[in-house]
Design goal:
Blueprint (H helix, E strand, L loop, with lengths): L6 H30 L22 E5 L2 E5 L5 H11 L4 E2 L21 E5 L8 H13 L9 E6 L5 E4 L5 H4 L6 E8 L5 E2 L2 E3 L19 E3 L6 E5 L13 E3 L2 E3 L2 E9 L6 H10 L6
EC number: 1.14.11.2
Protein name: procollagen-proline 4-dioxygenase
Membrane topology: Single-pass type II membrane protein
Length: 285
């Protein structure tokens, strides 16, 4: 037999339960915030290390390919400063040359943006170096492996058809090193269009019928200061075919992006030669 409290007893039960709940959640909340505000001490580090503890937020967008989103990675002021560095130096973007191919042989309709390569040491303000250092902390990949920034502008209707950043040796020949990963920093927001697309995400659309122009699959809308990072290679070092990606046509507005290609080996002194070759309107892979 279930004993039910009389009316007066029933009225007395509720306040006690309410007070107990308030006490419980107060204790839990205090414990949570005291832990979240607790300073994390850094370990001693060597000469090539860093004294800071990273708290850069990110979201996993996909595991196939491994793709990550970094919200508010750069400030509005940093983005606008980078645009100002590049806007008077832009040239038509070119394609990497396949074996035996010349610039005249490439299909320029595949990539219709304009751009310029700028190495961090060329920027006296130190903004590019600061962004590079933050990329290294976020990606856990050393700056020695970085190509110079490729600053790109996409105007109305401009796009980049789907492609892979890693080089297939059968098509491009032996490389000094391979493009392990790509970091894209959005320097501007786009009103409509201009998404970064991954049509083969999770193995979709890989039936041989994709025409490399349709804007389908995983799509990331550009937002000023946000960034995405993705791997071009699988953990075993082979090309991840699902890393195929492109830039959807800009429908309204203008798109600015800073691309940082990250190699699997130190880029060393080749970075200077790379900038000179690219900015003389010839793309060397």
């Amino acid at each position: 037999m279930i004993m039910r409290p009389h009316g007066k007893e029933k009225k007395l039960v509720f306040p006690y339960v309410f007070m107990a709940c308030c006490f419980f959640f107060t204790i839990i909340g205090f414990s949570y915030f005291s832990q979240s505000n607790k300073k994390i001490e850094s370990f001693d580090h060597e000469e090539t290390g860093d004294g800071s503890v990273s708290n850069i937020p990110y979201q996993v967008l996909s595991w196939k390919p491994r793709t990550f989103h970094f919200p508010n990675f750069a400030t509005k002021q940093q983005c606008e400063a980078i645009i100002n560095m590049a806007k008077h130096k832009l040239k038509p973007s070119l394609l990497a040359l396949r074996k035996g191919q010349t610039v005249a042989d490439t299909n320029q309709n595949v990539r219709t943006s304009t751009g310029v390569f700028i190495a961090s040491y060329e920027d006296e303000s130190g903004i590019l170096a600061a962004i590079e250092e933050k990329i290294a902390i976020a990606t856990k990949l050393p700056r020695d492996n970085y190509e110079p920034f490729n600053i790109l502008r996409y105007r109305l209707g401009q796009k980049y058809d789907s492609h892979r950043d890693a080089f297939d040796e059968v098509e491009y020949g032996t490389q000094r090193s391979q493009r392990l990963a790509t970091f894209l920093l959005y320097l501007s927001s786009v009103e409509e269009g201009g998404e970064t697309m991954f049509p083969f995400e999770n193995g979709r659309n890989m039936n041989g019928r994709y025409d490399y122009q349709k804007c389908i699959g995983l799509k990331v809308k550009p937002k000023q200061g946000d960034a995405i990072f993705f791997y071009n290679l699988l953990p075993n070092g082979t090309i991840d075919q699902r890393s195929l990606h492109g830039s959807c046509p800009v429908i309204k507005g203008e798109k600015w992006v800073a691309t940082k290609w990250i190699r699997d080996q130190s880029y060393g002194d080749y970075a200077d030669e790379f900038v000179d070759l690219h900015n003389s309107n010839f793309e060397q892979n």
